[in-house]
């Protein structure tokens, strides 16, 4: 359980660091990625981008 928590935390840190580069590639702007303003703040729900990145990670893991 602790291993999965650590992997998830590291993945979030990695994606957060690479987010400006991923944004230029079009991730975060796909249909299914929601952005809205609530309580004076921008909120993002990148559902389609998350699905695409997880499929890519699964393909890489299967290939390796």
UniProtKB/TrEMBL annotation:
<dbReference type="InterPro" id="IPR021320">
    <property type="entry name" value="DUF2905"/>
</dbReference>
<keyword id="KW-0472">Membrane</keyword>
<keyword id="KW-1133">Transmembrane helix</keyword>
<keyword id="KW-0812">Transmembrane</keyword>
<feature type="transmembrane region" description="Helical">
    <location>
        <begin position="44"/>
        <end position="63"/>
    </location>
</feature>
<dbReference type="Pfam" id="PF11146">
    <property type="entry name" value="DUF2905"/>
</dbReference>
<protein>
    <recommendedName>
        <fullName>DUF2905 domain-containing protein</fullName>
    </recommendedName>
</protein>
């Amino acid at each position: 359980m602790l291993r999965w928590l650590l992997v998830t935390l590291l993945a979030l840190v990695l994606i957060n660091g690479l987010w400006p580069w991923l944004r230029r590639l079009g991730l975060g702007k796909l249909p299914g990625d929601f952005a809205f303003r609530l309580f004076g703040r921008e909120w993002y729900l990148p559902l389609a981008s998350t699905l695409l990145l997880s499929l890519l990670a699964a393909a890489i893991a299967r290939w390796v």
